Amino acid sequence: MKSLLSTVLVSFVLLSCNNNTSTKKSSTNEVEKTSVEVIQEKNTSSVDIKPVSHASFVLKSTEHQFFVDPVNAEAFAQFSNPDYILITDIHGDHFNPKSLENLKGNANIIAPQAVYDLMPADLKTRTKVLTNGDTLSLSSSTQIEAIPMYNTTKGRLDKHPKGRGNGYVLSVNDYKIYISGDTEDIKEMRALKNIDLALICMNLPYTMDLNQAADAVLEFKPKKVMPYHYRGRKKGETYYEDVEEFKSIVTKKDNSIEVELLDWYAI
After folding, report:
1. What is the DSSP string of 39-78?
2. What are phi and psi of 190, to 5 degrees?
3. Domain-embedded: residue 149
4. Could you report the per-residue pLDDT of 220-250, keeping only the tens digit for each?
5. Are 38 and 70 found together in one domain?
6. In the beta sheet, which residues pair with residue 167?
7. Is there a domain that residue 154 lies in?
8. Is 237 found in the same domain as 204?
9. 3-state DSSP call for residue 253?
10. Angle of helix 210-220 versus helix 243-253 axis, rounded to 10
11. Is residue 111 part of a domain?
12. Which parts pass through the membrane (predicted)?
């Protein structure tokens, strides 16, 4: 009888332990599942890029729509009104006051001081000036930082002097988008961290060639890169940087970087 009682007690203890273990495992699994779901939700934050032409595009997040360097109002008429307009530099392929005035809506404009100085009074009232290194919170989930963009090669230095124009890093729910503007492979670009999507210019004699662009991308390692602004001039003739070659260089040396090629010259 004593032996039988001991056996029953042992069985009960084992059963209780198993139930506790099962409960703990179930609880742990729920925690792990929740953690994974949160991480996946965070990592799937994204934006939609719609090329318009050359340096001009529409960037749409879950919260805001941005027009970037919109120099042709008619080409943007197909899109809904923007929440913000980003201007990178003073040149005509980035800044056109008449186009800005003809865009639908009354969106806030973010621009460097040099652009602001060239604006008519009505546009100035809608414009927030950012200089290199400035940051601005657009909402609880969206922030923007102005990044330097400039030339470093002798013979190109006057095209984009340091401090005049802005590149931008836009953070949307921790998803980071880098817009290079007109620049060469500067140290500030190479020092970027945790960029999810990079839009990288490449065109001579104004910015950099595809090899410079690829070398910089391989250093700061964005998760995805889109070449844009790749029409230039050589010997008085229009040419286009070989973006397929750019893609080949980057992916052969680091296949963790996705290169997406879009048509930036449909119009």
Report:
1. HHHHHT---EEEEEETTEEEEE-SS-EEEES---HHHHTT
2. -65, -25
3. yes
4. 999 999 999 999 999 999 999 999 999 999 9
5. no
6. 147
7. yes
8. yes
9. helix
10. 30
11. yes
12. none
Using DSSP, state whether 105 is helix, strand or coil: coil
30 CB-contact burial (10 Å; exposed 0-12 / middle 13-18 / buried 19+): exposed
Residue 169 within any structural domain of the chain: yes
With bands split at pLDDT 50, 70 and 90, how would you rate the model's confidence at 55? very high
DSSP 125: T
Instruction: Provide the domain limits for residue 220.
Output: 52-259
Tokens 């003073």 belong to 90
Residue 199 in 3-state DSSP?
strand
pLDDT (tens digit per residue) in 1-47: 444 344 444 443 444 444 444 443 333 343 333 333 333 333 335 79
Q: Which residue has the tokens 């991308």?
A: 217
Query: Are 38 and 60 part of one and the same domain?
Result: no
146 - beta bridge partners? Answer: 168
> Do 124 and 85 lie in a common domain?
yes
- What distance in Å separates the CA atoms of residue 239 and residue 231, rounded to the nearest whole number? 6
Enter the pTM of the model: 0.83
